[in-house]
Structures are given as structure tokens and as C-alpha cells.
Amino acid sequence: MRRVPPMHALAAFEAAARLGGFAQAADELCVTPSAVSHRIRQLEAMLGTPLFERTPAGVRPTTVGRLYLESVREAFGKLAQAGALLQPERERLRVSLPPTFARQLLMARLPEYLRSHPEVEVEMHLSIPLQDVTAETADVEVRWGRGDYPERTVCKLFDDVVMPLAAPSWVAARALRGIADLGRAELLRSPLLPWRPCFAAAGLDWPEPERGAVFNDLGMLFEVAAAGLGAAVGTRRLSAAWVDTGRLVPLFGVTAPAPFTYYAVATPAQHKRAVVRDFIAWLAGVFA
């Protein structure tokens, strides 16, 4: 078997030929120019022929050197290809998410998924709740709604409850004694969470409020409620960050089953991919 030249000598030869000098090759390889010169002399001695013409302006490959350079580059290319074959292919997973779900529920848990699935490369895109609008085509959509999505594979992530919420200072300033007192208070509204389930749970046959600021993002709704703009309806899970820090307090002990919740949705074709099924199963498990 013929003796194979050392890899460091081949790398020095290729770099010097490409860059036109030993000093430039030394900079790229993080060694001294004398080390590059020594490696190339070692390679020339093994091959029994000069590979470079030395000139005051630098070096250039001899005719033999140019032919050998082609072989070296081809060999390096094959080594790179072989290395790529040994690495597991990263699988792309595109997920669309409503903004409040992403910020309040998923982002803190996502590192757990990524650590246990290093082969998956995720792309997260925000969508508009109830309108099912996203900036990118997604493999998995997390939707806020009732779960009636025709021609889709649907997985409910969890059930929740709704309750009226307000800032402690807002409550104290109004001396509210019961939910009926909200009839004379500022009620914040959102198409994502109606008031009527809370009214009905308290035995009030009231319609949806017709006045009050409207917010189509629950994070914005909770934030302005915490700032004292009015009372809002929130789910236990989504409002936890505000309630746990005392910025919002539940009112009157009233709760009701949430009319909407989050669902993981995929087309039948997307659901055939193992990465899609695994991610949906992980979502369902982490929120169980």
C-alpha cells in the first residue's frame, strides 16, 4: 500500500496554492509561515517533485503541482461528502402559533423539546387567532377556537376555565361587592373571550357588553387590565403570569368552562410525517 501524505501537509499545499503564498496559508491554518514551508517540503520530498515555483511575489504551482492540486481538492471533496453522510439529517418543522400562546405557554417549554430532538430544526411563526392567518405555510398550526376544523387532524391541547379579572387598584377604587356590580363598570372586550360564560356562571342572563375597548390579542388585553383600564375575562392558564405576580386578581370567585381553547392542527398529508406526529404528541403531553 502506498504511503498516504499527512493531512496537514495536504492542507498546507492546497491553501498555499489557492491563496498564492505561504504567509497567507499560514494565516488561514493558524500556524507560522515556516511551518507551512516545512510541510510543503515534506510533501515534495514524499512525491519526489517540486510542487511550487518560488518567486519574489509569492508561489505558484508547477505543472505537476496543478495536476496534483486537482486530485487533492477532489479527495477533500469526497471526505466532506463522507462526513455529511455520517451526520443525521436535520428535519425542518414549521409551526404557527397565536402570540399569547407562544409567549405565555410555549416558549418556556420549547427548550425541553429541542434538547430531546436535536435532529429537528424548528421555525416558529405567529398567527392571528380565530382568523387562522399566518405569514408562512406551517406543518403544525396551534389554533384558538372550538376545534371544528374540517379536513384536518385535530388534537385538543387542554381544557381551561375563564374568570373575570382586574387590577387590585381598580377593584379597590370601585368597592365592588359582586359580579352584578360590573354592570356599572368598565368592561374590556375581546372576540377571543366572551363575557357571557362568566355572567351565566353567576346566574346573570346578560348579553355581551356593547361598549368598552376591544383587543384581539389576549396579552394586550391582560396588560391594559393590569394597568387599570377595566375588568377583563381571562383563562386561568393564559392569565397566570399576571395573576401570580398580583397585577391582576380574579373577581368574585366566578369561573366557567372556557368556550375556546388551543388545538394542534395538521393536514392529513402533514400528519403522515413522524416529526409532525411527535411534536403534536409532545404538545399534548406537556400541557396535559
TrEMBL record:
The entry's keywords: DNA-binding, Transcription, Transcription regulation
GO terms (BP aspect): DNA-templated transcription
InterPro entries (UniProt xref): LysR-type_TF_proteobact-type, LysR_HTH_N, LysR_subst-bd, WH-like_DNA-bd_sf, WH_DNA-bd_sf
GO molecular function annotation: DNA-binding transcription factor activity; sequence-specific DNA binding
Domain HTH lysR-type, residue spans: 5-62
PANTHER family assigned to the protein according to its UniProt record, in alphabetical order: HTH-TYPE TRANSCRIPTIONAL REGULATOR, TRANSCRIPTIONAL REGULATOR-RELATED
Family according to the record: Belongs to the LysR transcriptional regulatory family.
Protein name: Transcription regulator protein, lysR family
UniProt source species: Aromatoleum aromaticum (strain DSM 19018 / LMG 30748 / EbN1) (Azoarcus sp. (strain EbN1))
